[in-house]
Write a structure and sequence with these properties.
The termini are far apart. The protein has three helices and 28 strands. The longest helix has 9 residues, at 2-10. It is mainly β. 5% of the residues lie in helices and 43% in strands.
Length: 359
């Protein structure tokens, strides 16, 4: 029994200076430089490739985002703000218990764009009035004749807020990024909710996501939501149009009490993962950190922080951390970025229209 245990231990360990230690590969989890058009991280090849415009100055490339395996250090030392020279590939040694040699390189030849699979109703044109399990009517993001698969594409917890008299997700028929017959957009609105004669007060951010809604916990004014719809492609980015109209944050909850009075922010993020099942999120107890979750293969996010009067395009690069094939995609949109902590501005509105995955 002791011999078997020793063999099992050594199978996941390394020797260094005659001491046995656990093997923790040191890796780049996220990397971004100023002006990049795209970044690809290959764990198998231990390379980071950033695609920059042809006229970019490769001798003075500034790192704007960086995330390494927890506890890893780099040589040369890299951090946000570091200026690196990518006129030729840069060799970087990442160290946990062992050394791992990585290469950072630049390319002005971005992969040729190609068409690829899209998700149902990414233009947000298809809506109908649906009923939840309790018979509450709400606006749902699918046609009346949609298939069961199409009905499950876009989830929202707005049926629970609708039951209390608050609309957080609505179709927009007049203020659009793309006009035309039958065109609609998505409007997300943050609402401060008072229930049970004022005994329960919570903020509800307007939010939609790929996935479904599970049980509602009225005592917490929260619901179990399951992020992820089946998807096996590796898109390069998510694009679309947005118009954000925030108000100052007036509802706060730990650990974000210090945000009170600051202007609200909204966001759109996209996650490619190989979870075994859709991810169970139930704010604020069950949450996901996409920057560190081992099941997340690719991730990107854009934060909106300015007040607008017209639509503008947005672009979210997806940085891949692994060569693994995704099982799920999750696009999450919210009118208050800290809504999962019931923190935001009552009245913040985010309009979204014409989403598209690019390859």
């Amino acid at each position: 029994m002791l011999v078997a245990a020793a063999v099992a231990t050594l199978s996941c360990s390394k020797y260094a200076n005659d001491l046995v230690h656990m093997e923790v590969p040191a890796e780049f989890l996220y990397f971004e430089v100023e002006g990049q058009e795209y970044c690809n991280i290959s764990r198998a090849q231990k390379t980071v490739t950033v695609y920059l415009p042809e006229d970019a100055n490769l001798s003075t490339v500034i790192i704007t985002e960086l995330l390494l395996t927890e506890g890893a250090v780099s040589e040369p030392s890299l951090k946000v703000g570091t200026v690196i020279d990518l006129t030729s590939p840069l060799t970087v040694t990442l160290t946990t218990y062992d050394d791992y040699i990585w290469t950072i390189k630049a390319s002005g030849e971005e992969p040729e764009p190609k068409d690829g699979p899209q998700l149902y109703n990414m233009g947000f044109d298809h809506w109908c009035v649906a009923k939840d399990k309790l018979g509450v009517k709400y606006d749902a993001l699918y046609d009346e004749d949609a298939s069961e698969e199409e009905k499950a594409m876009w989830g929202m917890a707005s049926s629970s807020t609708k039951m209390l008299g608050y609309d957080t997700v609505l179709p927009e028929t007049e203020f659009l990024a793309a006009n035309g017959e039958g065109k609609k957009a998505l409007m997300l609105k943050t609402c401060g909710i008072s229930a049970l004669f004022g005994t329960i007060k919570k903020l509800a951010a307007g939010s939609v996501f790929n996935g479904s809604v599970g049980n509602i916990e009225l005592a917490k004014m929260s619901a179990h939501i399951f992020w992820g719809t089946p998807f096996t492609e590796r898109p390069k980015a998510l694009e679309g149009y947005y118009c954000y109209q925030p108000v100052p944050i007036d509802w706060v909850q730990a650990p974000y009490e210090d945000l009170k009075g600051q202007m609200d922010t909204g966001h759109v993020m996209v996650i490619l993962s190989d979870w075994e099942a859709p991810y169970d999120v139930c704010p604020p107890d069950l949450l996901l950190n996409p920057e560190t979750d081992p099941g997340v293969i690719g991730y990107g996010k854009v934060v909106f922080d300015e007040s607008m009067i017209a639509y503008e395009p947005f672009h979210v690069d997806i940085t891949y951390r692994s060569e693994r094939t995704p099982k799920y995609i999750t696009i999450v949109c919210s009118s208050s970025a800290r809504g999962d902590y019931f923190t935001g501005g009552d009245g913040s509105v985010l309009y979204l229209d014409e989403f598209k995955l690019t390859y």
